[in-house]
TrEMBL record:
Annotated transmembrane regions: none
Gene3D superfamilies: 2,3-Dihydroxybiphenyl 1,2-Dioxygenase, domain 1
One Pfam family matching this protein: Glyoxalase
CDD domains: BphC5-RrK37_N_like
PROSITE patterns, per the entry: VOC
Name under which the protein is recorded: Oxidoreductase
Residues of the VOC domain: 8-122, 140-258
Species: Pseudolysinimonas yzui
Length: 311
């Protein structure tokens, strides 16, 4: 089994001009809890996760501020920093004490496309709770997906520098790659990278307690007047359920559950033909994937590439 220095996904941080509208949606409808506010920056936790927060929202031009990952301890974090430095990865800042809610010790770098990645350890965790049966709120942040104009190069950066592993890939009938699912632990994917016209956020996904809670959550969001752009269904890659919506900032966000846990010693990645309907949706309940549906998640060009966020 691969011994990785990155242990898990922590949170995703986004900026958008309609901060108040986005914050209201995530707290009043999506099911996250605001735990800290610093002016025009809000920190949102999931009741089922011990992470201090799983989403950070900030008022600014629309962009991905950063995606944060954890390491097991300070020793692994410093080893990772040494590795990335030796590989000429560009640092935003060197390892230091962090001042954000939950504190910790960490550093930030730019990935190959210019997105900011944070790695941290010794974070003060919050008191989480078990999500109740039929409670339609997220347990945790499941995964984040990026659009990239350089799909294979973007994915290879995570393989080469962070020791992520490609779990499965989606391909077109001619064999050309459309999406790579990458893992940093036994969960099928913590990130994925999709082929797009530009670099941007494809979607953020939130894990629900189970099928019942996932369906009730999707119904709750529909009743709030938010449009479902694809779903409900069940993917082949990852074997997880999906229901995709557009937030007020026009970011695609997903409720999911039952994302596959792999036996890494025996798992072999598959190349799944997207033209096969069972690849798109095992159940056959979602609309067939089309160019129109795919376009919904192309999103706006990320304005934050190779620009460090102010917080």
């Amino acid at each position: 089994m691969t011994q990785r220095l990155v242990s898990h996904l922590r949170y995703a941080a986004l900026a958008m001009p309609n901060f108040d509208e986005e914050l209201e949606f995530f707290t009043q409808h999506w099911g996250l809890t605001e735990t800290h506010r610093d002016g025009d920056t809000a920190y949102l936790a999931a009741e089922g996760s011990p992470e201090p927060y799983i989403v950070r929202l900030r008022r600014d031009d629309k962009r991905i501020d950063l995606v944060s990952f954890g390491t097991k301890d300070r020793e692994d974090l410093l080893k990772l920093a040494d590795k990335l430095r030796a590989e000429d990865v560009q640092f935003v800042h060197e390892p230091r004490e962090l001042t954000q809610p939950g504190g910790g010790f960490g550093f930030r770098v730019f990935d190959g496309d210019g997105r900011v990645l944070e790695f941290s350890t010794e974070v003060t965790l919050r008191e989480s709770r078990k999500i109740r049966e039929r409670e339609p709120i997220p347990v945790k942040l499941s995964h984040t997906v990026f659009n990239s104009a350089n799909l294979n190069e973007s994915a290879q950066w995570y393989v080469d520098h962070l020791d992520f592993t490609i779990s499965d890939s989606l391909v077109l009938p001619d064999g050309s790659e459309l999406m790579h699912f990458l893992r940093c632990n036994s969960t099928h994917h913590s990130i994925a990278i999709a082929k797009g016209p530009h670099h941007s956020l494809h979607h953020m996904s939130f894990e629900m307690r189970g099928i019942e809670e996932w369906m009730r959550g999707a119904g709750k969001i529909l009743r709030a007047g938010t449009r479902m752009i694809w779903g409900p269904g069940r993917h082949n890659a990852g074997d997880n359920t999906f229901a995709y919506f557009l937030s007020p900032a026009k970011n695609t966000i997903e409720y999911t559950t039952e994302l596959q846990i792999l036996d890494e010693d025996t798992w072999h990645p598959s190349r799944l033909d997207i033209s096969q309907l069972s690849t798109q949706d095992q159940w056959g309940t979602a609309s067939e994937m089309s160019e129109l549906i795919a376009r919904e998640s192309f999103n706006d060009i990320d304005k934050g590439l190779f620009v460090a966020p102010p917080v």
